[in-house]
Amino acid sequence: MRIEELPWRSPDAFIAHYGDEPWSVLLDSGGPINERARWTFFCSRPSATLTGDTVSDWARLPELLPPKSAEHTLPFSGGLIGLASYEAGLAFEGIASRHAPFIPGLSVARYDGAYVFDRQEKRLFWSSYCDAPQPLALPQCSAPSAILPTLDFIPDFDRRDFCAALRAIVSRINNGELFQANLTTQFRASIAPALAASAVYRRMRHASPSPFGAFFNTPAFALLSASVERFISMDAQGRIETRPIKGTAPLGATPAENALIAKALRADEKEYAENLMITDLMRNDIGRVAQLGSVNVPALCTVERFTHVHHLVSAVTGLLENGLTALDLLRATLPPGSVTGAPKHQALKVIDATERSARGAYCGSLFRIGADGALDSSVIIRSLVLKPGSLTLGAGCGITTLSDPEREYDELCLKAAPLLGLFKP
Q1: Are 313 and 243 in contact (CB under 8 A)?
Q2: φ and ψ at 82, to 5 degrees?
Q3: Is 246 a catalytic residue?
Q4: Hey, how many other C-beta atoms are within 10 angstroms of the C-beta on 52?
Q5: Lowest CB count within 10 Å: 98, 142, 252, 384, which one?
Q6: DSSP 3-state of 335
Q7: Which Gene3D superfamilies does the protein's record reference (predicted)?
Q8: Nearest-CA neighbor of 11 among 23, 22, 25?
Q9: Phi, psi of 326 (to 5 degrees)
Q10: pLDDT digit string (tens) for 142-173?
Q11: Catalytic-labelled residue, pool 21, 71, 87, 229
């Protein structure tokens, strides 16, 4: 084990200097500093990588896990960082998507250490579970980020088509086929080859700081995420927590207006029902791998404020069954319940039949597993995927029998607006 305290450098400086190297990754906490958004990690130059599209590729992941070690002083000292796409989650549920994938289902790297940023105390460390030396020279202060181009994003669904698809899902709900489904669309824009993922992310993290932001630059694509949603976390003792988000409202102009908006969101029958169903779904998913009787719901439908919106957030906890690992927990719960529907398996089939393209990284999960066995992960929402020649952004909303099509489309646009706004004059 090696821990070295270093002179402070900002995460932005690391992205500016090293972000465009293949397999550079920043797990980025932004916004108000609290225990869920205190730590940021930068990793680069991995010792091993794995990419693939099948369930059998997931079976190879234990080979990449570092040897299990004692609990560490810092929350992450290297290990696995990876992305499981939405379509990988479908495969775990035994569903073959009708859409052609546009990124690998699984992209994972093993890092021998991590640069660890303590936002609360403004301290920087190099921490390695295997006593590895630093792979990088400390960057100097970064120059201002580049001006981004003006882009035209075209969605899979325009307002009329989205509302028609939503009404069709509501009809299937009313016929008893399912209770809820998450309907999404992808916005796409053509880009010049010179547009660097690091430049886009530096502007993005400044405009939309978020507790589960991420920059994950693979040889095939780059994920730029401003996610506000934790997926699954588990500490070294096997204590599990997930915090599903369902229910969205805009921010007000004053504290008094925000208080009224939060009160209305808390009392909204449709949003409450949506959150309740997803919380129950996550209880079921965690129950697949948790010790009997250990699953609880310590928080239900509380209102939390984020950079651009209010959300209803719940919490589900449990204790991992003896003999299982973080990989078992992820496989049992992917794709995230908050972006699928209930019953989950049927919702996945309805979604795939209704939507017009693969989701890819969007609605998948970015995760880290440390040498101590601890896990943290995010639901990939509020995100961009950059590939040569194209940039995509996903947005969606949960559909129940109470859904109003126009209101749901407005919610979708509210979620997409901060990222689309990066590319407006």
Answers
A1: yes
A2: -155, 165
A3: yes
A4: 17
A5: 98
A6: coil
A7: Anthranilate synthase
A8: 25
A9: -60, -35
A10: 788 889 999 999 999 999 999 999 999 999 99
A11: 229
Residue 140 is predicted with a pLDDT of 87
Integer CA distances (angstroms), 352 to 176, 234, 340, in order:
18, 30, 10
Q: Is there a contact between 309 and 415 (Cβ–Cβ < 8 Å)?
A: yes
Is 190 strand, coil or helix? strand
Long-range contacts of 300-306 (CB under 8 A, 24+ apart): 300/275, 300/276, 301/247, 301/266, 301/272, 301/275, 301/276, 303/262, 303/265, 303/266, 305/251, 305/258, 305/262, 306/31, 306/210, 306/211, 306/228
Task: Specify which residues 375 forms β-bridges with.
Answer: 234, 369
Q: Residue 34's pLDDT is what? A: 83
Give tens-digit pLDDT for 238-265.
999 998 887 788 888 888 988 888 888 8
Spatial separation of the C-alpha atoms in residues 103 and 113, rounded to whole Å: 26
User: Are 184 and 394 spatial neighbours (Cβ–Cβ below 8 Å)?
Assistant: yes
pLDDT tens digits, residue range 402-424? 999 999 999 999 999 999 999 99
Residues facing 109 on adjacent strands: 49, 81
**Angle (deg, nearest 10), helices 344-354 and 159-174:** 150
Q: How confident is the model at residue 31 (pLDDT cuts 50, 70, 90)?
A: confident
Which is catalytic among the residues 87, 241, 246, 415? Answer: 246
Q: Which residues sit opposite 387 in a β-bridge?
A: 390
71 given a catalytic annotation: no
The DSSP element (H or E) to which 384 belongs, if any, is: strand 383-387
The Cα 363–Cα 352 span in angstroms is: 13
- Cβ pair 258, 223 in contact under 8 A: no
At the top level of CATH, which class does the domain 2-423 belong to?
Answer: alpha beta
